[in-house]
Design brief:
The structure is a homotetramer. Chain A is an alpha/beta fold and about 350 residues long. Helix content of chain A is about 35%, strand content about 15%. Chain A has an eight-stranded parallel β-barrel with strand order 7-8-9-10-11-12-13-14, surrounded by seven helices. Chain A has a four-stranded antiparallel sheet with strand order 2-3-1-4. Chains in contact: A-B, A-C, A-D, B-C, B-D, C-D.
Chain lengths: ~350, ~350, ~350, ~350
Amino acid sequence: MFVVMQAGAGEAEVNGVKGLILSEGLTPFENAGTDRTVIAVVGEIGKRREALRSRLEATAGVASVTAISKPYKLVSREFHPEDTVIKVLDSVVGDGSLAVMAGPCSVESRDQLFETVDFVSTHGATIIRGGAFKPRTSPYSFQGLGVEGLRYLAEARQRTGLPVITEVMEPSQVDIVAEYSDILQIGTRNMQNFSLLLACGRSHRPVMLKRGFGNTIEEWLMAAEYIASAGNSQIILCERGIRTFDTSTRNTLDVTAVPLMHHLTHLPVVVDPSHATGKRWLVKPLAIAGVAVGADGVMVEVHPRPDEALSDAEQQLDFPMFDSMMLALTAVHGNVKDLHGDLARSAANRTAGGRA
Amino acid sequence: MFVVMQAGAGEAEVNGVKGLILSEGLTPFENAGTDRTVIAVVGEIGKRREALRSRLEATAGVASVTAISKPYKLVSREFHPEDTVIKVLDSVVGDGSLAVMAGPCSVESRDQLFETVDFVSTHGATIIRGGAFKPRTSPYSFQGLGVEGLRYLAEARQRTGLPVITEVMEPSQVDIVAEYSDILQIGTRNMQNFSLLLACGRSHRPVMLKRGFGNTIEEWLMAAEYIASAGNSQIILCERGIRTFDTSTRNTLDVTAVPLMHHLTHLPVVVDPSHATGKRWLVKPLAIAGVAVGADGVMVEVHPRPDEALSDAEQQLDFPMFDSMMLALTAVHGNVKDLHGDLARSAANRTAGGRA
Amino acid sequence: MFVVMQAGAGEAEVNGVKGLILSEGLTPFENAGTDRTVIAVVGEIGKRREALRSRLEATAGVASVTAISKPYKLVSREFHPEDTVIKVLDSVVGDGSLAVMAGPCSVESRDQLFETVDFVSTHGATIIRGGAFKPRTSPYSFQGLGVEGLRYLAEARQRTGLPVITEVMEPSQVDIVAEYSDILQIGTRNMQNFSLLLACGRSHRPVMLKRGFGNTIEEWLMAAEYIASAGNSQIILCERGIRTFDTSTRNTLDVTAVPLMHHLTHLPVVVDPSHATGKRWLVKPLAIAGVAVGADGVMVEVHPRPDEALSDAEQQLDFPMFDSMMLALTAVHGNVKDLHGDLARSAANRTAGGRA
Amino acid sequence: MFVVMQAGAGEAEVNGVKGLILSEGLTPFENAGTDRTVIAVVGEIGKRREALRSRLEATAGVASVTAISKPYKLVSREFHPEDTVIKVLDSVVGDGSLAVMAGPCSVESRDQLFETVDFVSTHGATIIRGGAFKPRTSPYSFQGLGVEGLRYLAEARQRTGLPVITEVMEPSQVDIVAEYSDILQIGTRNMQNFSLLLACGRSHRPVMLKRGFGNTIEEWLMAAEYIASAGNSQIILCERGIRTFDTSTRNTLDVTAVPLMHHLTHLPVVVDPSHATGKRWLVKPLAIAGVAVGADGVMVEVHPRPDEALSDAEQQLDFPMFDSMMLALTAVHGNVKDLHGDLARSAANRTAGGRA
């Protein structure tokens, strides 16, 4: 249920509505939009629906009360028509600029990390990536440097001035990962690890939620809703390829998800062509496709000497390839930026705007 | 690397081999088979391979040293040709008998649970199932009774004398779930939650590992290998349907996985037709298919009044349907039992046996 | 639109209804059931619906006129509640007996075919299969013996007294294949070759329609509807595995399709474990699963010396394997037959019966 | 087997090699590249391989004889390193320009077709599309105007000066479709209709081969190989979306297929965002993605009044949407054109070039 406040409603009216919702054992979530404030009523409403609606409609400052048509609420465009913009240090995701998350698949050593970030930070990257806790298919593969890796990442942030993103694999790691890094990453295999989603939702750090390779668009939105429902609406979505019958590439990058998500949700969307394709030479064309279709950024793996990498050797870019990709992305981004005006996102905005 | 001991090798020789492996910083896993003992060498061997092989071959009591052809080792038939049989209280999984895990999707109340277990325990169930911690797609759906539900399950065990299986959703829950129940269940969305796999691997309780609905046969085996590598080889595999393009049922039950798994691994395999089909009336025929193809058991959801269920209402059996299914399964199981002699499992045994 | 006739309605009333339908440029299809006759109205009704319904309801002998809820009409249980039983020579498909279609993937020579059919016909096969026109992924692979192969098949029919099934690949082949064989097979890649479906629909031979490996249940029924709409309702459905992300077997046999189809349609359903698995040793367990879940029969590939086969060498059974499978299938079929009473099929009958 | 001729080899030497191949009952296919001529040896070589190779190597003018690593030969980059460029009337596909195939899903009437082509031909379309024979899932849906539709298409060509592409559904239609149109289209459901592939391969018209929605990259190439092996190498590939578990759009446009195909084959590749998404508002962003990733063109459905369309109403663009899309595509194409220099295609060229 959404409560749309009148245009002139003030804090007192908003608090009155929130108090009524809380007194019913439900949770109010407020979106103070430019035009009007909307309050989402979250929780198990059940048979109280009609009575509650009547009481809310009769409350001071309320313009209207509407039903929510989707199972996701806080992350929907209906609730929050404006794009969510995420600012971390001096980097921004979702404001129309191009976010570029780059760095090695795994932090392997201080030297390897520094060599990489020195290059990418001076060639267009806006956020540093690097794995400290690594989810690996085999228990016998390199599992990452753990906390030692986190420390190197924090040093890399100092060194470059760029924010750092790294993966968190279980609820008990959230605090320490949040201590050393700026953005928490939830990996594809954990997209429906609901305990982890809630733990990240209780963190004050932005969260990047990768799409599960076997998960639908709606499940992805519901996973984001878990995070938002726990209090954290600073969420970046990352399309990284889905599993299909075709195995000529590791996975199939679903670029359609970008405009579709921009239509359904206010959250920014980036694409990860490295994991999607699993092949180095396909990273650049797929990054271009992602940016062209309107993604807010890309995440790519870069390694000084990819063939020596301890993980994902096949798909990490070397420095010249990163450089070449950045030149192309910058050109394409500048070019498609003006095309977004009548793309899915603004169409969604118009639709959503029509609601208020 | 597998070290096959000589037929007459004793404890001293085995310990000699293990000591050598440990001294290299690697881990020995022993399978004392009826004919011979096999010791798997687990860890990152790298370039030491040839030197280590030579030293092992020269060690007292060693018959031969062979390479392992698969990425999974401890769960492979190659390492452990005999079927793993899991005994919990008086119930057994994997010995040729039919294990029947039955109970409600969610424990909703003491009364609902007891009413259900009283029926299923007197109509063929050998293990009680019931969800206390429930992984739900929506954060706004019923999330289970939690520890209260675990307590009711422990009471149900007392009441029926049957062991209890219930899901564990995160590493920090393993201890309490292990305290109240007999078998830990890892759900389909957590199949590659590696932290949870390792935590369950350190438990002394048997673990039932559901196949991820988007995961391959090999990924499933690697997930089991995670559990085994942490020290727990009491693992039951559960095929519960995979996600395909066809949405006329919730998922597609992959019955081929049963003989395939019996061929590749020594672990028992059960099927879950409730979650696979999502439709009550399809549970019985699919359970029959699973048993006919050689599954070691089935897991089904049963509710006194399915239409009132707080979760998975569409797929839970009522009591007469459970009774009808059990009559059919008992007949089919008795009938196909003798056919297993030349089915995949024994074929695998022969192949594996040929190795020693 | 279905027109249900009154219980006592005779030929005159039926013809009256048909005449009215024809006068509207639509086509009547009659199902003279044991209780009542139902006439389906097929064609583009459009805006005439209400007027036509009124006129039909007012016609002599009409009990009621009902809407059709599914896009497939003639093949639906709603139109035709009784199971369709197909008789070819002395063999029957769909009457509760077990149809066994066996023979080589390709007819390679008269000797190879005769050696095979001599064995399978004396060990339980009820229908002879063999490919004369072979759809091959590569233009450079053996494409079958063509008409020469058809002639050998006709000789094999003479020799064994069993009917013959073989594939037809294009509309212009229908006549000659129908001349030499008893059942026309439409292959998985041609399931939506609508020209071929219509051509087979105009033939007087029964048609076996394999499910497309990338096609849904509903598309499969619509393909059958194409055949039926052209006048041929003697259709056997064959589940042969669908394409999924898992490539450990060639395809994934969707055994759920068997009870689902028995619920939705009156047509018999057989399973093909040879093409589904692509592995010889998996054919027997999957054939058992298919029979156990209620299939009306199985289709398997058998070759005197599979390793020398010109096509599908990996999946053809040798003679001892066929013999062993038949012993198992006979036992399982005898055993599950009585279980079908409350399985999907009769549930469908009850539902459908409730309609009349 | 590929026979690479010496740089200076003339017609006599080439004919000598061809004659030797023909005398073995095999077929020579010649690619007279800018540097050297390559002759592919196609057919069942079997055990003659080594002897044949020796004889060819000893033939006048032969530089070397190499094995072919892929199952597809004539369509591979290995055989034909240069891009295939297809010219029809004044339109070109594959030369680096942007081909735009536009028109209604179905030709519904002369007026509807002319209204559409008048618009698209003056707003950037380079090829007219329109369905005369329509493959429809239901036998009761509009099946197209047939030959009448073909005649209107031929008139549209006269009217606009643009070439026409339309679908052919069965071998017996190839002649008449080739008579009235300029490019033969093979639909997604017929991608492995081998009889149709061969019939189109014997035509003198270029063929556009849509990818089967359930088919792999390799199967797609093998289907193209069928056409080429029958003598027609004027083939355009069209990626139109594959079937995945996600049903939020009709299919999933696999843009990765574009650079992958440019790497593996010399044939041009276009994308069809209309059928891939099934949603009008997603056509433009996906068309942009396709062009950005390097596609040689796009195919889109346009209708004067999409909501009144007799087929695919949901996905046809209206005129303003087509105009808006064309403005965006023109801008993006101009921008990405220069990026292709180090994209997959030229990488492939370098690799392939390295072979000679």
